[in-house]
Every structure is written in structure tokens, then in C-alpha cells.
Amino acid sequence: MDYDSLREAGSIIGSGGLIVMDEDSCMVDLARFYLDFNQDESCGKCTPCRIGSKRMLELLQKITAGRGEEQDLAILERLARLMQRGSLCGLGRTAPNPLLSTLRLFREEYRAHVNEKRCPAGSCRNLDRLQGGPEEGSRGEDKTVD
Amino acid sequence: MAKIRLWIDHREMEVEEESTVLEAARRAGIDIPTLCYLKDLNAPAACRVCLVQVEGKPTMDASCVLPVSEGMRVRTNTPEVLAARKEMIELLLSDHPFECLTCERNLNCELQRLAKRYGIRDIFIEGSRNHFPIDDLSPSVVREPDKCIRCRRCLAICEYYQAVGIYRMVERSFNAIVGPAYNGSLMETPCIYCGQCITVCPTGALHEQDSTARVWEALRDPHLHVVVQTAPSIRSSIGEEFGYPVGTPVAGQMIAALRRLGFDRVFDDCFGADVTVMEEATELIERLERGGPFPQFTSCCPSWVRFCELFYPEYTKNLSEVKSPQQIFGALAKTYYAREAGIDPARIFVVSIMPCVSKKYELLRPEMSDSGYRDVDAELTTREFAQMLFQAGIDLRKLPEEEFDDPLGSASGAGIIFGSTGGVMEAALRTAYEWVTGEELKDVEFPQVRSDKYKDAEIEMGDLRLKVAVARGTGEARRLIEALKKGQKEYHFVEVMACPAGCVGGGGQPIYIETDDWNEQVAHRSRRSGGLYRLDRQAEHRRSHKNPAVIKLYRDFLGRPGSEKAHRLLHTGYLSRRLYSPEPLPKKEHKQKVPL
Ligand code: SF4
Ligand code: SF4
Ligand code: SF4
Ligand code: SF4
Ligand code: FES
Among the four residues B32, B121, B399, B484, which has the most C-beta atoms within 10 Å? Predict the structure, then answer.
């Protein structure tokens, strides 16, 4: 594994860490987790990163809480593209990557959250509650939308 | 200078190598919107509404900071670029209160204008908004951080132009805001209340403390005798608000408008300026006789005075002890005028119309009550004055020209040019020269001190070579004082005004949003001086000591310049102030309680 092979796989080396996951990991929640981190790290100087990452996080919180709507995925993609193309620095330009790659590779999981209010990995607690399922098992802490 | 060849929207062009893409595009007549950028003052590349696409690049770039390069091909108006800019504006609006109808800057707001230009009808994304408290504790400047777009122009002007440095980026991520340390109140900072941050703010996030309500109230009160003084520069700036070309002098219509608003007497602050000259020239001569302390600094700009008190207290002994024209006028209105007109000073309410937000602070300084009352009761900026006229349905263009009232209404040309940078100096020189040499000036003009750049000169007065300097902006003043300290410079007399181009560029003047170039902004403000110099050339008297109204004042009331009475009413003292400890100002309630 080196810089070039990772780039071919659509990733970057970053700090060199590697995360291994199985089917119990919810990809939407994962994207939410990373956005939460990046949103927090934003210096707040430029518009797309300061407001865009907040809006993306809010949408992902909404989706993982079972309140997602059909158009939200398209809006997420618009926001992600705007941040990638228009942010001032690398943080804002790469912040949407986890969202874009999970959305590309696991779109079905997003659809299940939005359309069926179901979390295939069984990890988004609020969705399970909506489905009458078990309440335990949520990993990412769910912050509610303001 | 090397040239660079590039293509913008398929048009080939050659520009200087240090140009930005924005500059190159503008030169070719292609406009790109900007919001945070203010050429030569602020280019944080923060707002991102000026995005362009460089062909072959996956991302877009902020054209305001993008350097041109050889062979570059740029697109400024593809559907993708236009859509990205539009989304950027919508993102900004998603964290912005929709309060245009009740906003200071309604119809004169750069954000609002941009939203209109991009046809924003719908915001594609909504979400939570920041809610910061409004800071209205300072006597002069109000901050409404919810309307802030984080452009940092206020930070840039305060730090680089004024060398005060009140604003910082506070917090981070979504909550990042531009404000004083810890997002506290301006009142707790060494803000000098110049209001320059207001003049460059693209939105309504910064504005002056409103005084119109108080003035309306006074005008409605039948027991009050409400007099108004208009600062020198108002006559050449108020016209802008009514569509006159910048710098058109409209003194006559302005006076008529004030009468129609209901003021009992319309006086001229230039008369106050003439008296300032009499006292200040006398003080200069006294210092010349005593041998110092030099330089004598002018003291008619309260922001500069506060700057000196805060940052260079060891130089307050150099500040002229003479009050500013506003305060001289107020003190005379409640003593001399009250006596002449036979009116109880307790019933006199003095309003001043100033280009300035700092004068709101100055009139509250506890010592500014030598008449036995608060010398000046309320101050309106040029903008507030225009607002009152709009409200009252008074259109300057439809009014006849009228004259100021006596006895505080006639001024010399010297008093009029106080509004321009170098004007205070020139006015004082006209009088000091004649007093020192005993000769009459053949030409009263001193072009050596007229400039919108830092200027110094030597003036020959008999055998004396008077070394003078004119500085605008406290940043320049700071550099000047540092040079004095190191012994690199020596002067007898120095004029400092805190605002670019002097009071014509003051923090209370009409806000001009047609340019994103700081030098062009200053040039616009300087054009207002043209009107003042024109009025000076037409004036019957051009030297303060030849103004018959001033001669009468000294004959009938003050005695001579520098007399004991003049000292008591027209002179003041200064404090050394601590940087981060708020000093109490007197409550806005004043002594005169008039029976209702
Ligand atoms: S700052 Fe501008 S956009 Fe915002 S409310 Fe005021 S006028 Fe409207
Ligand atoms: S009023 Fe002047 S000193 Fe105060 S914050 Fe604004 S620019 Fe700075
Ligand atoms: S207060 Fe005004 S000038 Fe300062 S950053 Fe905010 S919008 Fe810009
Ligand atoms: S230069 Fe004039 S307008 Fe500016 S702060 Fe001083 S007195 Fe006020
Ligand atoms: S980023 Fe260019 S104008 Fe703001």
C-alpha cells in the first residue's frame, strides 16, 4: 500500500491510519461522523467550509434521525461539490470526500434511511425506534438538528 | 514591467504580471462580483463569490487573489461558475437574518445587492443560524453580529489603517465571528469610535448609535429651544443622499431643510471652527514663546484625541487644549447665545450634525459641560440627517437656498475647510501667520498642506521656519509619533484627523458601495473636499480672525483669545486611559429637565 495505489482507490494517506469495518457499520453514520469532525475543525474563514459543512452535517443528522427526505441526497451532493470546488483550503476541499464516496458506493444504504426509515446496519437508533426495533446498538451519538 | 498573455472568456489579453485575474477581467470590461475584497486593504479570499474556472483545473478559484499566469485560460461565466456563485450567496443567506425591511443598510447593502444581481428567489439549503447578542453599549458604534458575513474588512481597516486592532476572528467553525476579543462589547475595548469599520462593512452588521429618536423628541417638545450646528463637511456630502454628484456644495438647501424640520435656529459649526482657530493659533504662539512642548497636536478630532490618550498618554501634553468646534459651539450656544437671545440655557437643546460617529462619544465626555449644562445634547451623522429628511418628506433638490442665522452662523472660508484633511492646519496658519509676522497674507492658500497623503512642510513666518505635518488615520499618527520618539522627525504643529481625507471621509458620511477598491473609496471621499475649497474661494472672509461675527464674540463676550473666560469655556484637559478597562460615561440623561 503506497500513496499512488491509494490514490487509484480514490483515497489519501492522511495520517496513515486505516479503519476496518464490517456490515454492522452504517455508512451514513460513518459519513456523519467524519463530517462532524471536519465541521469542527473548520477554521470558519471561508463561506463554503464554514456554512457548507454545517449544512451537510445537519442533513446527515436529519437522515440518521429518520427525518430524511428524498431531495436531501441531491442537496448533499450539491453542497459537497460546492465545498470541493470552492473552499479556500484543503480541509474544506476534502471534507466532503467520505460523504461522496459512501454515497457513490453505498447509495442503497442512504436510500433505506431516507425512503424506508430503516438502517440496514441496525446502528441508527432513532430509525430502529421508528421501525419498532431494538433501541441499543447505536454507535455515533446522535445530535439533534437545531 | 513584464507582461503576461492570457485568455479570459476566450478573449486574448496582455496584462502586467502582478495582476490578479479579477483585475485583468475588469480591465477587459468583464465584471466579477466581490464581497469581502477591498483592493489594497483586504483580500482574505473568504467569501468565495468571485469564483472563476481555470480551464483544466478540477476546482474553481477566487479571482480576487488569483495571480495571472502565462497562457492561462479562464472562464468567468460558464453555467457551472454562475451556479457555484449563486449557491455561495445562498449559503451565506442561510445564516443571515432576513431583516432588510428594518435594516440600516436597506437599499445600500452589498449582500442585498448581490442577492438581487443573482436573482435569488429561494435558498436551496436551510438550517440553524447563529444568534449573537447585539452590542449597543458603545456610545458610537453598534454591532449586530448576526448580519456579519465574516468579510474581515472591519478588522483590516481597524488594524492596518487605524493601527488600533479591535477586531479578531473569534471562535471557529460555524460559530466563527469577527468581533472584539471574546466577542465582548466594543465598550470594553480601546476602540476610538472613528466608525471607519462602519464605512467599509458591506452589510448592516455595523452602524452608528441612533440619535434621531432623541432629536425628534426634542423637536416635538414645545418648551425646548432647539438649535442646530452643521459641521463644515455636511454641506458637501449630504447632497449625495439626494442624488447630487459627489462634492456638490448644497449649504443653502441644507439650511432650508433644517428650518423645515423644525429647528428654531440653524447655526454653522464653521463659526465654532473659526473660534477654534483663534484659540489654537494663540496657543501655538504661546508655545513658540515658551519653547514648547512641541509639536502642538490639533485636538478637533475626538477619535485622534482618544487614540492619543489610550496609546500615547505621554503625548497628551502636546494635544492642543482647545476644544473641538462641536464643543466650542455647544459651550457658546448655552452661554453667549443664551445671553444675546435672552433664553434660559436650561431650555436650549443643542443638536450637531456631524460627519462623525465619534462626536456622539465626545459630547458625553464628563468634562464637556462647561456651560453648566451638557454643552451639546445630541449628534446626528450625515446619514441620520438624511434619514430624518426622507421621513419628513423634505427633498433638498426642491428647496430654495437660505442663510444661516446670527449670531453663530457666519463663518470664514478657513472655518469651512476644516472638513478636509489639511484644512485645520491651513485655517490655523492663515491666522497664526498674520499674528506672528504682523503682515497681511497676500495669498491665504497653503497648498503645501493640502493632500490626501501624509504631508509635511516648512512655512516661513518672518524669521521663523514653522515645521508642520498633516496625518490622516491614526495608523499614520502612530508612525509619526514613533518617528518623533526616535528623533527622526521634529515639528512645531501637527494636524491629525482619524478619517481618510479628514472629516469628508468620516465614519458618519454617506456610505459608498460602488467600488471594491480602497484607493478609489478614499478618492470618492476626497472629492467632497472639492466643494469645501470652492466655498472657501467664494467666501467673503477667508481668515478666522477677520470674521466679523468672531470679532464681535470676542469684543462682547470673551475678551481676547486665550482669556480667562475663553479658557474656562473653550479649553479642556486630557486623561491617560487604560487600554482594557471601560470608563463610565455619564448616562444619556442630561441636566436639563424641562417641565412638561
Ligand atoms: S445586512 Fe443587508 S441583507 Fe442583511 S438584513 Fe440588512 S440589508 Fe438585508
Ligand atoms: S470604530 Fe474605529 S477603532 Fe473602533 S472598531 Fe471601528 S475602526 Fe476600530
Ligand atoms: S462586521 Fe461587517 S465588515 Fe466586519 S466582518 Fe462582519 S460583515 Fe465584514
Ligand atoms: S476625522 Fe472627523 S469625522 Fe473622523 S473621527 Fe475625526 S472628527 Fe470625526
Ligand atoms: S473571495 Fe474574492 S471577493 Fe471574497
Answer: B32
